[in-house]
TrEMBL record:
Residue ranges constituting the CMP/dCMP-type deaminase domain according to the UniProt record: 3-132
Annotated keywords: Hydrolase, Metal-binding, Zinc
Organism, scientific name: Kushneria sinocarnis
Protein name from the UniProt record: dCMP deaminase
Alphabetical list of PANTHER family matching this protein: DEOXYCYTIDYLATE DEAMINASE (PTHR11086:SF18), DEOXYCYTIDYLATE DEAMINASE-RELATED (PTHR11086)
One Gene Ontology CC term in the entry: cytoplasm
Record family assignment: Belongs to the cytidine and deoxycytidylate deaminase family.
């Protein structure tokens, strides 16, 4: 059994170093069925797009950013059916779609913040996970 709290803390430290987002540094990791971290990544702009002042413009950032969950799925092209996704923030419904489509069977993340502008998207993600049979686990402190 994994110490998911420690793994999540370590992943957040990685995101804090690697992500260029000044406000919301998100990390995601693919965990193989044998418990190894196969790939990890952070929220980022696409390749070839400069890490410039657009990180400080919320609208520009939202138009350009690749969420950590999608970055890790794009960066690991092997079959991940039955694998676990560890995420430092609650996933949005678009990332949930990508995880379900790739066959992720378990998602582990902190709970979403009630009242957040992302709350509707987080709730929809949870509904999609439930319907698709994805084991969704929220880690609380």
């Amino acid at each position: 059994m994994h110490d998911w709290h420690t793994a999540l803390t370590s992943l957040q430290q990685y995101a804090d170093i690697q992500s260029h987002d000044p406000h919301c540094r998100v990390g995601s990791a693919l965990i193989s069925p044998c418990g190894l971290i196969a790939h990890r990544d952070v929220n980022q702009f696409p390749r070839g797009i400069a890490n410039d002042e657009r990180w400080h413009d919320v609208d520009a950032k939202l138009d350009l950013v690749i969420h950590a969950e999608q970055a890790v799925l794009h960066g690991y092209l092997h079959d991940v059916s039955g694998w676990t996704m560890l995420i430092t923030k609650c996933p949005c419904h678009h990332c949930a779609q990508a995880m379900i489509q790739r066959g992720i069977s378990r998602v582990i993340c902190p709970p979403y913040r009630v009242g957040s502008k992302w709350e509707r998207s987080h709730r929809l993600a949870q509904e999609m996970f439930r319907e698709a049979g994805v084991n969704y686990t929220e880690l609380t402190q």
